[in-house]
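[User] At your convenience, examine this fold.
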Amino acid sequence: MNGVMTKIPIEVIKFCKIKLLETKEDLLNRVKDVRTQLLDVQDAGGDEGDQSVRMIEEGELMAHQERLRSMLFEVEIALSKIERGSYGVCEETEEPIEPERLKAIPWTRLSIEGAEVREALQRRYAR
């Protein structure tokens, strides 16, 4: 374990790991459900109007599935960091992430300060 890891209380890490594993299971089930819904939408017949509605539904389901997969990726990164001993370190400031923030969003990669820094940079370069 590195020095920063020890600044995050072990109880917080254990709590977050449980929450991350529960979230992972939930996300995997939701991805599976969306996949089933996609197959149902794709298998339905109908006239041109029905097909148009199905195409819209399919697009929405695919976007939803992509959001779920993206969140699953974040959860996997957090679990990996716990295993490597680098969990709870802000990617922007390299300081420990606030324990309350980790409890609320255990897959976060940024402290509050780090999130503010990143937002400011995004606004600056969005112009």
Summary: Confidence is low (pLDDT under 50) at residues 1-5. Helices lie at 10-43, 48-84, 99-104, 112-126. The domain at 5-126 is CATH 1.20.120.910 (Four Helix Bundle (Hemerythrin (Met), subunit A)).
